[in-house]
Amino acid sequence: MTLDDILNEIQIAEKIVILTHEAPDGDAIGSSLAMKLALKQLGKTSDVIIPEFSRLFSFLPGAQEIMQESSIKEYDLAIALDCGDLKRLKSGEEYFETAKRKIQIDHHGSNTMFGDLNFVNPASPACCEILVEMFEYYGINIDKEMGTCLVAGIITDTGGFRYNKTTAETFEFTAQLLRKGVNVSDIYKRVQDTKTRANFELTKLVIDRMEILEDGKVTFTYITQEDSKKNGAEVGDHEGLVEIGRDIEGVEVSIFIREKEDGTYKASLRSSTYVNVADICLMFGGGGHQMAAGCTFKESKEVVKEKLLNEIKKVLK
Ligand code: 5GP
Ligand code: MN
User: Fold this and answer.
1) Ligand 1 in contact with 246 (CB < 6 A)?
2) Cβ density class 159-184: b for 16+ within 10 Å, e for less
3) Confidence band (pLDDT; 50, 70, 90) for 91?
């Protein structure tokens, strides 16, 4: 499977849908919108379907055209972006499954290769960075609008150029866009620094409840459904909460669990240097990256904490 095969699928398709993972972040939304712009240059119209996303991303070019659902039930081609497995597509899953051809482009090490064509590079810091490589190969002009979407994804997934998968290419590409007039500083401020009021209120709870365990190497904290309701939390308002524990000196693994509307707990794990949290989450049916991963539990928060701690303890040095 090569980039030419993907281009061929795009060229023969008429009705194209672009999909991404649930609770979409800057990389998910940025890559979806950049793909739509790239398809336009290839002479193709497409639908981006994202049922819910944080209003903090509505500044991205093309965000107003995002659809919550579509009346088309059978697309010629579905392109899934930044999504490691089929069930994470959530409500997009139906469009993906019914599409005649399925492509997925991603950077999760735990990717299950659920497309007909799979372009997966776990070494890439962001799905958006994979798209840069693809678009350059296709001779697509990465203009200011597309660049804004791509940089938003790169900043999100590199934690603002901080994580260790950030490469020289990441900076070089960003520098090129800066020269083209992309306002990197403004994008950085919007996707990395700006917090909603609900997120701020949840941050206070998360810090107050933070338990520092295992000789200071692990942190645990949580948010219940009641907390989310009380603070009017919407999709995206739990972003960043897991990173608070990880950033404490000496902490290797941070655990943040959040009760969802259906009573299940969504766990988010982050590691600082050596623990592979994707491996831990895979044991519980989830996945992700070495240093950022997640999974879902049906048990109580006490049991979830116990189960995760048990596995983490085994790999702590
Ligand atoms: P977060 O903790 O921010 O929700 O997710 C961290 C990373 O792990 C993201 O890259 C996300 O896509 C991935 N991830 C989170 N939850 C799951 C899950 O349940 N299954 C899989 N396969 N990946 C997940
Ligand atoms: Mn990503």
Assistant:
1) no
2) beeeeebbeeebeebbeebeeeebeb
3) confident
